[in-house]
Amino acid sequence: MFWxxxxxxxxxxxxxxxAMLLLSVASTSVADNAQxxxxxxxxxxxxxxxxSGVEIGVGVTGIYQQTVRGGxxxxxxxxxxxxxxxxxxxxDLQKLLGFDGGSIYILVEGGWPDEEGIDAGSVGSVxxxxxxxxxxxxxxxxxxxxxxPLLGDNTTLMVGKIDFTSVFDASAYADDETSQFLNGAxxxxxxxxxxxxxxGAVLSCNPTESWYIxxxxxxxxxxxxxxxxxxxxxxxxxxxYILETGITLELDSAGRALQGAYRAGLWNDPQPKGHxxxxxxxxxxxxxxxxxxxxLTKENTEPEDSQGLGTFFRYGYANSRKNDIHCxxxxxxxxxxxxxxRDEDVLGIGFAQGIFSNKASATYTEDCENALxxxxxxxxxxxxxxxxxxxxxxxxxxxxAVSDAVVLGLRTQIMF
Length: 416
Known about the structure:
This protein is mainly β. It has helices at residues 2-28, 32-39, 45-51, 93-97, 119-123, 229-233, and strands at 54-71, 81-92, 103-112, 137-150, 155-162, 198-205, 211-219, 239-253, 256-269, 285-298, 308-318, 325-336, 346-356, 368-381, 384-394, 403-415. A hairpin with a 5-residue loop joins strand 6 (198-205) and strand 7.
């Protein structure tokens, strides 16, 4: 009886998401020219703004997830439906104001509902099975920064309110919860104490075409819902410092350029902190990370075409006295265009493991939490995609009283 009710709920959700998808497709299929106007700039407005150096984009992501086995609770419905919406704008200061280079970037984001996904009530994962679940936020300015070239084009300075997760430890295949993996372990390295959209600065330099160095400082106490001035300039002066270096390269394989990126970084967080069982806090937390992504095979020789198989890897280390997860690694693969005639579809699979501090054994009765995720992103129209996915979480929350969880999900994304 209960399974019939659950199946009915899933069917209702699928129908609702399908209806939204069909309405979107219908609204853009009146004529090819109408679709071009709507998607490339709000019925022509975006094109005129682009001529002035301003680019705009809008995205809406809707997600349904359900724990079908294990975890904390398979019956709880709260948090199953979630979503986010965002507006981003980039202004070229040279075209707009006549400056000698530089740009301004703004990201305004909101989401729903109050419950941030199903983790807290249904899964109990430390990683989080829905990295897009941000809670019930109105349209808040999450990023606002200026990027300006220094000493020519080889050195750039970013200053403002910045999402440091999009700058450091990036990945071509595991970095975007709206189109790639949903599990938080495949979006950001959990051993790096990234602050929430914070005031800060990033200086990047390219000594050669393939070698870069970046250094950043961010308000470690930031609250993304605020401007950042209160925590940056009031109270204790705690700033997260990150240094990253990396190389980008192209491997030649039968005339096909296989792009790759390899990076390593160090960070320092001066905030007093300790693991969950700690009786005292320690300052000056330090750690390091390495990561890479590499194209393994390409289906054709076109430089801009990304059809083919790629892989990624991440590793991070943090002090076990000051952190719950002191060691982390993840690996995975992405194949674009696997199915004949579906050149833009993407299949992704990844495995991640977070190893808990042995000093926090009272809180974490298991040694680690593991996450396995498989998704398939189907491009329905140029601006509409749907992604069914499945996650298998072992040792959720590091609690031996919680059984392994299976989470099914469906994600719909609309871009304008």
